[in-house]
Design a protein that fits this description.
The chain starts with a helix and ends with a helix. It has helices at 3-12, 23-30, 38-46, 55-93, 97-113, 116-158, 164-176. It is built from 7 helices and no strands. With 177 residues, the protein is mainly α.
Length: 177
Amino acid sequence: MEPRQQELYSSVLSSEAIDWEDSETFHAGLLDKEPLKEADEDMVSEVDLNNTVTEEEREEMENELTKLEEEITTLKQVLASKEKRHLDLKQKLGITPLSELRQNFSKSWYDMQTSTAYKKTSETLTTAGQRTSAAFSNLGTAITRKFGDMSMFGLQLFYPSFNEHACNEELTKFQVL
């Protein structure tokens, strides 16, 4: 076992649990069923097995952290200044939040209308509308003819002497007038 590991384990485990020469005793101590004493628990909480940073490295990291925090503060100040200037320029140009919203909406609407999906959908709906209109027109014409046929049939039924050809001639006379 390496000296650094021995040092870390020694600070955590009681002296009775460790005999570095006799690995049997060391393993038995680790598997000991006795609970840790309060003093042992305190030592365990203070040991950081992952922190193997030297004092010099720690100092360098703290200096770098301080510099980064200062840079972040400076950048926040610069950003706040630029945002204020941005707002001032907008106000001088008369750009209000409402006008920006209108402009964004208009641009989005234009972008949507020029998209391929919108064009295809529009064409499809236009064609469907035209076909539906033609179908209703044909249906209306068919219904009108049926009503016309039924009225002629009714006239012939009640007036057997009714002549359709003569009636059509009379109607033509009235249309000319």
